[in-house]
Amino acid sequence: MELYNLTIHELHERLKKKELSSLELTDAFLKRINAVEGKIKAYITITKEDAVKQAKEADKRIAAGMDVTPLTGVPISVKDIFCTKGILTTCASKILNNFIPPYDAAVIKKLKDAGAVILGKNNMDEFAMGSSTENSAYFTTKNPWDLERVPGGSSGGSAASVAADECAASIGTDTGGSIRQPASCCGIVGLKPTYGRVSRYGMIAFASSLDQAGPLTKDVKDCAIMLNAMAGYDSQDSTSIDAPVPDYTKVLTKDVKGLKIGIPKEYFIKGLDSDVEKAVKQAIEVLKKQGASVVDVSLPHTDYAIAVYYLVATAEASSNLARYDGVKFGYRVKESKNLIDMYCKTRDEGFGPEVKRRIMLGTYSLSAGYYEAYYKKASYVRILIKRDFEEAFKKCDVILTPTSPTPAFKIGEKTSDPLTMYLSDIFTISCNLAGIPGISLPCGFTKNNLPIGLQILGKPLDEETVLKTAYAYEQATEWHKKRAVV
Amino acid sequence: MAITKKDVEHVAVLARLALSEQEIKLYTEQMANILSYVEKLRALDTRVVESTAYTTSTNTVFRKDEMKPSLPQEGILSNAPEKAKGCFKVPRIIE
Amino acid sequence: MSYEAVIGLEVHSQLLTNSKVFCGCSTKFGAEANTQVCPVCLGMPGTLPVLNKTAVEYAVKMALATHCKVNDKSIFARKNYFYPDLPKGYQISQYNEPLTQKGYIDIQVNGAEKRIGITRIHMEEDAGKLLHGESYEDADSSFVDLNRAGVPLIEIVSEPDIRTSDEAVEYLKALRDILVYLEICDGNMEEGSFRCDANVSVRPVGQKEFGTKAELKNMNSFRFIQKAIEYEINRQIEVIEDGGKVIQETRLFDSDKGITVSMRSKEEAHDYRYFPEPDLLPLQIDETWIEEIKRTLPELPAEKRERFVKEYDIPSYDAGVLTATKELANYYEDCVKKYEGQGPAPAGFKQGAKGKGQEILPPKVVSNWIMGELLRLLKEDGKDIAQPSAFSIQPSVFVKLLNMVDAGTINLKTAKEVFEEVYKTGKNPESIVKGKGLVQVSDEGALIKVIDDMLAASPKELADYKAGKEKLFSFFIGQTMKATKGQANPQMLNKLLQERLAK
After folding, report:
1. Is B56 on the interface with C (CB under 8 A)?
2. Does residue A244 sit in helix, strand or coil?
3. How many CB atoms lie within 10 A of CB C359?
4. How many angstroms separate the CA atoms of A224 and C389, rounded?
5. What is the spatial distance between Cα A304 and Cα A376, in angstroms, rounded to a whole number?
6. Could you state, in order of their start, the residue ranges of all structural domains in chain B?
7. Chain B: nearest CA to A327, how far in angstroms?
8. A329 in contact with B, Cβ within 8 Å
9. B-contacting residues of A 83-102, CB under 8 Å?
């Protein structure tokens, strides 16, 4: 075992006992990045100097025994969607190729306050629009389990950096599955918390009513540790929930006796990869053996989720991305005849094809004559989807599904047809539309040795039960101990 | 309600995107595809939920009317593509 | 054919909060460019709005003052359009479910009362400012100052109930008075804290349907608004009479030429793509809060005017003038209280009486003085009567002067001179009177001597008078006043002269 293979809680034990300094640890990760980053390409920016400085600070805290948290001195990475004060923040877009925020995102501040060391900013799909990182304006990140495959997306850089041991953990954002799907593709744990559980302040908006930040980690306990540091009310975010934050590590007891697991029939459909189906069904058996019971539930509007998502998310995005106009920050085209010309050319050159496609679709669905039929109708169906979950959760404590119908696909395999790409989000999207928490954790491998993800969805603000179930499953299996060989 | 090339051109103007002919053609096709996929929503009866567009039941929060320090001017302008006289500089506006 | 105009007004007024509507930046006018800007009002990536509670309270105040219904739930919406002064590429406003709707105000036009309906009042954020022109010699560029971006606004939309430019101006003045009375807007049109756009159309008298409207912008004074509307009404009538059609468009008022000019835009009509603002949850205003706000509402101009007429028995014209600003009205009331508080007027109390001993009540006396003297002086000095500092003469000093007139110490004419002196120097009226020897001649003996001398010097007039030319009485009064440099006690002079002439 190398240092960089360890989990946060394992590293914390060593740091706390002063068997290891944060500086040594940070150095070990920087060396690891040096060694594998050429193959993986998980980072847009590596912040070596800041990381070393933060590591030294952390070592001081540990030496003084002051304010030592489970994250103090632990090197992590962050998706390049989080604003970092004084550090380039691109959102993997050309339009922000020179943007240096004068502020930290609320989550970044929390992690820094906890003493985490930030190694760098991860690659992603441009403005979090995509499922593969192929939409990054800079490069495509490779899946550490198979370099010819995508790591998933949009938080693909984050997931790959964790899977390739280029950091101890990472944070991403999830608008329609952007944490869970890459976690699934890369064989790690990824959690999307309840909408409002984590502040969105300083996190570059894609679809404001869906976006939520969450951790990507090597195991469930790390996930709980990260969530402890990230969650909580923030007065800067009006949609943030003012509810107490429990200690999420406290519920990790392996005891799931009496737990009722809902299995939605709508999620076991045609097109579901047979290896994936097998792995998920086995996972259900594992939990049953531990004392959980299984009930059939129905989420009848599942089939509409993608349609709703691609109308609501693109509409919000078309508005959220209007601020990138070449006036206040970011890219501006060199030559222009007048203002409108400057706007149109800057945005045409600054945004990539997928972002433009979504801006177009969103603009269209909000425009005069179409608003009622598209955006508004979608908003209503969204409520129906939310109600499906409310009904289902009357019968069960958590809902268990595959994270993705297929394992990681090959780079370039789906780029030509956007709709096919969108359809691969089918199992993750409803969770965002309903605002509920969801986790993905490893539950096996395909014949080709590609990781398979198990998704566990919970009631609003009930991350505890989600984590508890995930932990019980994880501890009963060995999947989380497997590491990609890069 | 098939989307036409003209529609796409109009939307591009609204969205301030100088799309090429090729892009217009491609997007017309792809948007038509996606829009025909989302047509399925129409068949759904949503009358029971048409009272609100919000999925949350909570209401907005307030802040007190208290001044907080602004950023210094150079901080505000530091990311500006072009600036002059303490302002963001933009090309002439033709009405 | 005769036509009538149909006018609806959209007023934007800036709310007098300390900080902006969605962030903590100052709202103060006139700061150096881009010094009152933060990541939130600059629309930087990832930043989010949080609603200023005081802005909501002020908007509710205006709603209550204009008899609007306050919705228990309202929704913020994004209005999407690109412009360099709009940092996020959308304005946070309200659309389908505004804060408040369905109200009215009553206005006075040429002595008649008219009710103007208010469609809605909603909250929104102001945009920044675009600078160009001579001071920015670079003709190929514009410059963006975002200090104003995010200042809270309410937009007050009227029903198309207005028919003339006079009504429009009266409506706007009444709205502004209310805003200023409520202390939620400074009403300053030049600085843009009170702005108005007008929708104007014309139709043949008797026709029910509205004609095609034009939206007028760029009018930053009541005078310009009046002119612009008048011009536009005539223009549209001419277009129709010439067999043309009025086009729906936005027209800018050119104040130099006094005309409205089409703002021909190369792009198609705006499509603002409103949708609910996902960064703000619904705004809930419960009954208790509304009641709380209601209790803080001051007396409004119309109520005050009515009360003045009733309580002080002054003409409604006076009441209108005196309630033009809260400060003036307060000053008036303070002076009246001081003056009346002295108990019954002294015996010789006939101040300002015209002719035959007709008494004027103390509140009207004060009103005459304020309207006739004080407001004239303030106007000459260009003083703002919305500022308490304009009323530097203490009510007690004011009343002392009135008392001196009542006591016969000085006459009205002298009193006016003294008043001006008090206004200019801040000196005590008594010392001015003493210092300049302005004390009224109320000594019977002395006055008789002056009268006798005067009569002796005017034998011809005296003879004519005796022959029946009674009009000459005022000539003798004038002559005596002249001889006493205006300091003769008028009542006494009147009495003594009659006695002398009767001899």
Report:
1. yes
2. coil
3. 13
4. 64
5. 14
6. 1-42
7. 7
8. yes
9. 98-100, 102
ipTM: 0.96
Chain B nearest C-alpha distance from C107 (Å): 33
Residue C410, SS3? coil
Chain A residue numbers touching B71 (CB-CB < 8 A): 102
Q: What is the CATH number of the domain that holds A472?
A: 3.90.1300.10
The answer to whether residue A383 neighbours chain C at the CB level (below 8 Å) is no
Cα A185 to Cα A72, A157, A482, distances in angstroms: 29, 12, 14
| Average pLDDT rounded to a whole number, residues A35-40 | 98
Cβ atoms of C35 and C145 closer than 8 Å: no
Q: How confident is the model at residue C352 (pLDDT cuts 50, 70, 90)?
A: very low
Q: What is the pLDDT of residue A212?
A: 98
**Assigned token pair, C120:** 């809605």
CB contact, 8 Å: A268 with chain C?
no
- Phi then psi for residue A440, to 5 deg, are -120, 135
Q: What is the pTM of this model?
A: 0.90
What is the number of structural domains in chain A? 1
Residues of A belonging to the active site: 79, 154, 178
**B53 closest CB neighbour out of C34, C144, C276:** C276
Kindly report, residue by residue over C359-409, the tens digit of the pLDDT. Answer: 678 889 899 999 989 999 999 988 888 788 889 899 989 988 888 888 777
Pairs from C370-377 (Cβ < 8 Å, separation ≥ 24): C370/C322, C370/C328, C370/C331, C370/C332, C370/C335, C371/C318, C371/C321, C371/C322, C373/C416, C373/C419, C373/C420, C374/C419, C374/C423, C375/C321, C377/C420, C377/C423
Residue A147 lies in a domain: yes
Residue A295 lies in a domain: no
B-chain CB neighbours of A102 within 8 Å are 71, 75, 78
Q: Which domain holds residue A119?
A: 3-259+438-481
Q: Is the pLDDT of residue C240 over 80?
A: yes
Most A CBs within 10 Å, among C82, C90, C97, to test the A interface: C82
Question: Residue C240 corresponds to which amino acid?
Answer: I
**Cβ C273–A367 below 8 Å, yes or no?**
yes
Does any CB of chain B come closer than 8 Å to the CB of residue A380? yes
Containing H/E element for C366? helix C362-369
Superfamily of structural domain B1-42: Glu-tRNAGln amidotransferase C subunit, N-terminal domain (1.10.20.60)
Q: C444-502 domain in CATH 1.10.150.120?
A: no
